[in-house]
Amino acid sequence: MIAVTNCGHDSRHQTKFCMLRKTGVPNYILLLVKTKAFFEFNGRLAATNPNMAILFDRNTYTHYESAGNFYNDDWIHFDFVGEEPFLDSLKIPFNSPIYLPQINSLSNYVRLLVKENHSDTLHKEQVQDSLMRILLYRLDSQIASPLTEGGGSKYYPVMNQLRMNIHNTPHQNWTVDTMAESIHISPSYFQHLYKEFFHLSCMQEVILARIERAKFYLSTTDTPIKVLSDLCGYENELHFIRQFKQKEGLTPTQYRQLYKAAR
What sequence ranges are listed for the domain HTH araC/xylS-type (predicted)? Predict the structure, then answer.
């Protein structure tokens, strides 16, 4: 089990901030640093940029401070109870800055950890253990993927969020204009970026999301095809049937029958 000793979310220090632990602490420390800072590595202070994570090993000399009059981070002190090999299975380096494309998604898990840490609810330790595992797996995943996802574009995080929204709510009336407007860029530039980031057009993404949702409903419900087409964002049943057959090689009814026969 992963035991969380203490943690903090969005900790803000308005005055000159400095943390020094000459002999470290007897547990691991994970920081998600959201502002510029200075960290000491091999006896020298080095400047670090925002959106940086760092995992300190147990009993490790630790010295870091703000680069100005403001410092902001999330922090977790944690350890393993009877599960030491867990970190060995991941690619998270110790005592080294890691720059992340999506630090906010990790920060959300820290927020939940802090909330749980200050509660007195049933299964508190199990919930913290689960959240820590997700957080460490997500951190490892971001390390494994290129740190310059989207070519380092400032639009990549918000475009990736839009992509997740499309798959989460494919029934919405997604159009190029409304999607571009949500990103605050022109439709032509939006379409160019979307294809560059995800290797298909935004409307192909919408169709893919709707077909995948339709396949889920067809295989798990007896909902009539007309109703199902509405649930998946199609204006009429005929359009849905034609598009589904084009993508899957079967009509929705045939797909449902084939799935049921295979069960």
Answer: 160-258
Collapsing DSSP to helix, strand or coil, 239 comes out as: helix
Claim to verify: residue 137 and residue 7 sit in the same structural domain: yes
Q: What CATH number is given to the structural domain containing 50?
A: 2.60.120.280
At residue 48, what are phi and psi to the nearest 5 degrees?
-120, 150
* Claim: this prediction has a pTM higher than 0.85: no
Percentage above 90 pLDDT, the chain = 74
- Catalogue the long-range contacts made by 112-120 (C-beta closer than 8 Å, 24 or more residues apart): 113/4, 113/7, 113/9, 113/76, 114/7, 114/8, 114/9, 117/4, 117/6, 117/7
Q: Which residue(s) pair with 38 in the sheet?
A: 47, 65
pLDDT at 234 over 90: yes
Q: Tell me, what's the pLDDT at 151?
A: 52
Number of structural domains in the chain: 2
SS3 156: helix
Q: In this predicted model, what pLDDT tens digit does every residue of 131-179 receive, in sequence order?
A: 999 999 999 988 887 544 555 567 887 888 899 899 999 999 999 999 9
Q: Phi and psi of 20, rounded to 5°? A: -135, 120
Q: What is d(CA 190, CA 210) in angstroms, rounded to the nearest whole number?
A: 21
What's the CATH code of the domain at 218?
1.10.10.60
